[in-house]
Amino acid sequence: MNETQQEDWLDRQLREAAPYIDDAGFTVAVIAKLPAPRQKRVSLRGTILVGITLVGCVLAYILSNGGSFIITSIGRVVTLPVLWLLAFAFASGILITAGGLVAAISKSREPQS
């Protein structure tokens, strides 16, 4: 019961504390001496990357004869035996899990700041 009373006392003290401590104008003087905020530069990097990506996609589509390789690849996958598909799915899962594990271990070895 004593712990509850102490928490209530602390809670009451924090609520009743003054929201601003008078510092005789120190805060205002420090803020006035700070340099003006810099203007934020507008970067075209994102727009350029998206544009180059779209150009690359269109170029790949045109050079691949209208994407016919996709239809051919899907046809080949459909004709594979189910056991091969299961083995491919299992191997893909193992590789992705191993990659995640390597990333987690390397992240945990980085120095914490």
Helices and strands in order:
Layout: H1 2-16, H2 26-33, H3 45-63, H4 68-78, H5 82-109
Provide structural commentary.
This protein is mainly alpha-helical and 113 residues long. Among the domains are: 37 residues; 33 residues. The protein contains five helices and no strands. The longest helix is centred in the last third of the chain and has 28 residues.
TL;DR?
The protein has five helices and no strands. The protein is mainly α. The model has no long low-confidence stretch (mean pLDDT 86).
Discrete helix count: 5
Report, as a whole number of angstroms, the end-to-end distance: 39 Å
Fraction of helical residues: over 70%
Give a count of the beta strands, DSSP E runs of length 2 or more. 0
Q: Rg, please?
A: 31 Å
Structural class: mainly alpha
Q: Main β-sheet: number of strands, strand sense, barrel status?
A: none
Question: Roughly what fraction of the amino acids lie in strands?
Answer: under 5%
H/E series: HHHHH
Shape designation? elongated
Mean pLDDT: 86
Low-pLDDT segments:
none
In quaternary terms, these chains amount to single chain
